[in-house]
Amino acid sequence: MPFTRSAGILLHPTSLPGEYGIGDLGQSAFDWLDFLEAAGQRLWQVMPLGPTGYGDSPYQCFSAFAGNPYLISLDALADEGFLTKEDLKDARSEAVDSVDYGTVIPRKLELLTRAYTSFARGANRAQREHFEKFQKQHASWLDDYALFMALKEDHGGQPWNLWDPDIRLRELTALEVWRKNLSDDIRRHQFWQWLFFEQWQVVKWYAAGKDITIIGDIPIFIAYDSADAWASPDLFHFDAHGEPTVVAGVPPDYFSETGQRWGNPIYRWDRMAEDGFRWWIERFRATLTFFDVIRVDHFRGFEAYWEIPAAEPTAVRGRWVRGPGQAFFDAIKAALGELPIIAEDLGVITPEVEELRDQNDLPGMRVLQFAFAGNASDPYLPHNYTRNCVVYTGTHDNDTTLGWYRTAPEAERDLVRRYLARDDSNISWELVRLASSSVADLVVIPLQDLLGLDSGARMNTPGVATGNWSWRFRWEQLPSWLASQLYEMAELYGRVATEVAEDTPYRQSVTEVAVETVEG
Q1: Mean of per-residue pLDDT scores for the chain
Q2: Helix, strand, coil percentages, rounded to 5, for the chain
Q3: What CA–CA distance (Å, rounded) separates 268 from 266?
Q4: pTM (2 d.p.)
Q5: Which residue is catalytic, options 24, 217, 225, 344?
Q6: From residue 520, how far is each of 126, 416, 502, 517 by CA, in Å?
Q7: Of 185, 198, 297, 449, catalytic
């Protein structure tokens, strides 16, 4: 699918400024979109927005369909009457440069529980009607998700494979008993999902009014400890007790002698094909309510994936297994039409993977940090790009450009300087300019690189279990010249945003937007 030549910034909502210890969908999200518009940026890329679990990774979520309650704006809840100004004092945090999840999560969940209590006791008719409509519209995944989360709470946070056999294996009598016993907790989790969906739709609507496209990830694999795995065990390679027999990962390579054992369950693609990949069609449909463009993480897994016996401690003793291939994308297109998809085609890419990508006319990815370890034929060097691709200086899994450059071998740094015909006094910005000037239709830059930050601002280090996903920025870190400089670069290289109406409303309450959505 062709994309309009444009530029944008990679920034997850948790990294937004705010006084409650974590970025959220409140005022800073709208201010961020104002900044993107002023800077001529037409793209905002985020990571998955699902409810995060162990390690706080947005790529290990409790659901492939739900939203992350930690992103709910507390200020917006006060505006709706679900919290008081006094309640908000309990949530304020002095931490502004990073997210301390261990402190933020219990504090935020306490406030969200207060909001649910307020709603249960005193919601007005319109609010109740909109909530009930949401429950009905999303029942196909919401009921299982809310029960799953209520069960996790009742089991002290244990993963579902440690629950009693009757509920672990979803025996009908056990499901009925638990739904009755946990009915209020189930409704609370449904309420939190309603809040997230309503708030995110306001943000998405505001972005659309500024002609800003939101790009978001859909990871190919799901987390084992998730409502998806628990509710649909027949779709995965599980034994009779619900334990995985094989798991996902990647094989040994230059960076790791033992590869990466991710531990995600692997799909029974044969069973999914029997009903035309219905589960995946619904997943794409749901993801498109979050994002305008979907970046498919680990795209190569649709052609072939690395399968590891679950008993193996590393990824060494795995094997390549054929994925669903073109039949999968034919089914998706038949159900949903041509989708705006970006293929994350990094790593070990074979001609078969490239053929699958190109057969569906999907733009792939180019990362400048990968471009300077070889010679002139390196596919990540801009003179080898095609138009139908997305270029990044780095991704959420890379070091910042400054951090990478400082630790790169001298041979790579030398090639960088010769390729740019520049010195390295402002290396982050030089690579931003190089990406922007390329023929790639889309360019997306992590905010850390626009600010010239070092490794201390890195978002994630693969293979490291803790300390990730916590970086945040402060508004005062944005130089006064940054928006105009980015706009000039976007204009210079043909990526400038189009004009939008000046009278676009700044924001509306969740109830007002819900009414507009229903009526219009």
Answers
A1: 93
A2: 45, 10, 40
A3: 7
A4: 0.94
A5: 344
A6: 17, 52, 22, 5
A7: 297
